[in-house]
Design brief:
The chain is an all-alpha fold. Helices cover about 70% and strands about 0% of the residues. The chain has 24 helices and 2 strands. The chain is globular and about 70 Å long.
Length: about 500
């Protein structure tokens, strides 16, 4: 079955990840630039630039973006209900708003746009992608994030030595380009067929699905998929209008488990954010001579190691890769922690070991948890609460993003009032990776190759630990695409 001529267009919607990655990565280098520190910091003796930030100010500047993105993500549900997906074009332009002398306020406004895009883009990709390549297409969103991080590192490195305000203003201004490209490109893409059916626009849904699959509107494949979507939606609508409270109901449909799984998988994904927010600072404190170049190197690893993940998510499945990735990251985190606390800043061999295992750690993340967290949150929610549950999951990502970005300077810096853990903080991150293994084993099912409606059936009839066997039955036709049990569940829950 072909992917359809619009498959490339669905992949283009991943461009929203450029905004996410670039805005996340640009502050990593900007806050270490001499002119920026001279302008917004205070004199500090014994530092390379002669200036610095207090832990409080550094935490605020880095983490405040996530405060805006948290609320932006929560706006994703009501926004998706009104306009979907072309609303993506609106927040992007607001995202680029900057107040020259009020960086904190500017980053809050930036966060609103990035948060909204980060909720709608993966949801749109999941609803519009053919099921046999859905995981790969949604994974492209994470790949776009890594490209954004790399672009930020490269541009930061190119402007860092300027002795005027352009050193940090140029990297910030470049964000207008990514916003304009996404806003223009999204106008050419079709609406989500599932969203159109939910609005009673069946003819438009058939036309949109035809564009996506490459089949005509009268083809049996198109008609069968539209009927499957309608049947699933009718069963959910029989329960009435949904609210955010419905996302946490313990029904036979396991909506609460699905919502909490989405919230926690996005939270666990943030264990990597230390490297991309504070990588430059960490390498400086570790005595590494050229931290900006090392940051570029780690971002290159991130970009290219996401590619095996895009391929592997449809080859090996979601659940297996998440388990492998969490185990690999756990080992690397503890090695970095042990090496970091046992070597001096002048130990060249030790520094190389640190860099090597940070890169291996990023490779594990990039090929597993980076893309697959977005795949999971894009496909596990039923249509009735999909927008609301998705917005809660992405808001969780940004809430923990904020918490880690705000807390890390207090954890790693050696200033008065800070814990001064330095490399010891990797013991904490390693422990969280171990928790990721437990979480994945008990909470994340294998959904490779299933339609969104089949995933809904899986949650009704089995548990994540036993999902592999039930998936085989679904794929072999041993379980119908819709079942009498689904109708019975609907009647019981309505009663």
């Amino acid at each position: 079955m072909p992917g359809g001529p619009v498959a490339v267009g669905e992949a283009f919607s991943a461009f929203g990840g450029i905004l996410f990655g670039y805005d996340t990565g640009v502050i990593n280098g900007v806050k270490e630039m001499k002119d920026w520190l001279r302008t917004f910091g205070h004199p500090v003796a014994g530092t390379k630039t002669g200036f610095g930030l207090s832990s409080a100010n550094e935490s605020l500047v880095v983490s405040i973006l996530s405060a805006g993105t948290f609320f932006g993500a929560l706006l994703g549900a009501p926004t998706a209900g009104m306009y979907f997906p072309h609303t993506l074009c609106i927040p992007v332009l607001t995202d680029r708003f900057r107040l020259p002398r009020k960086k904190v306020v500017g980053r809050v406004f930036a966060g609103l746009g990035v948060g909204l895009v980060s909720c709608l883009a993966p949801m749109y990709q999941s609803e519009c992608s053919p099921k046999w390549i859905r995981g790969a297409i949604v994974s492209l969103y994470q790949w776009a994030i890594t490209i954004g991080l790399l672009l930020a590192a490269v541009i930061n490195n190119a402007t860092q030595d300027r002795n005027n305000h352009s050193s940090y203003r140029v990297p910030i201004a470049v964000q207008f380009v990514w916003a304009a490209i996404l806003a223009a490109g999204m106008t050419f893409l079709p609406e989500s067929p599932r969203w159109l059916i939910k609005r009673g626009r069946d003819n438009e849904a058939a036309a949109a699905l035809s564009r996506i699959t490459g089949y005509s509107t009268t083809d049996p494949e198109t008609i069968a998929e539209l009927e499957e979507i309608r049947a699933n939606l009718d069963a959910e609508l029989a329960l009435g209008e949904s609210s955010y409270l419905d996302c946490f109901k313990f029904t036979k449909n396991r909506i609460a488990l699905r919502t909490l799984s989405g919230i926690f998988i996005q939270a666990w994904q943030q264990v990597i954010n230390f490297i991309f927010y504070y990588g430059t600072t960490f390498f400086v404190n570790s005595g590494i001579r050229d931290p900006f170049l090392i940051t570029i190197a780690t971002n290159i690893v991130n970009v290219f190691m996401t590619l095996p993940g895009i391929w592997g998510v449809e080859r090996f499945g979601r659940r297996r890769l998440l388990l492998i990735g969490a185990a690999g990251m756990c080992v690397c985190e503890f090695i970095v922690a042990i090496v970091g606390v046992t070597i001096s800043g002048k130990n060249i061999a030790g520094q190389k070991v640190l860099i090597a295992f940070v890169c291996i750690y990023i490779a594990f993340f990039a090929s597993t948890w980076g893309p697959i967290a977005w795949v999971i949150t894009g496909e596990i929610f039923p249509l009735q609460v999909r927008a609301k549950a998705m917005s809660l999951s992405v808001a969780s990502n940004w809430l923990w993003n904020f918490a880690i970005a705000y807390a890390t300077p207090y954890l790693v810096n050696k200033q008065p009032g800070s814990a001064g853990l330095g490399p010891k903080v990797f013991f904490i991150w390693g422990s969280t990776c171990f928790c990721c293994i437990i979480f994945t084993y008990f909470c994340i099912p294998e959904t490779k190759g299933l339609s969104l409606e089949q995933i809904d059936l899986m949650y009704q009839n089995t548990i994540p630990v036993k999902s592999l066997e039930y998936r085989r039955r679904l794929m072999s036709g041993g379980v119908p695409a819709t079942s009498d049990k689904q109708a019975d569940n609907t009647s019981e829950e309505k009663a």
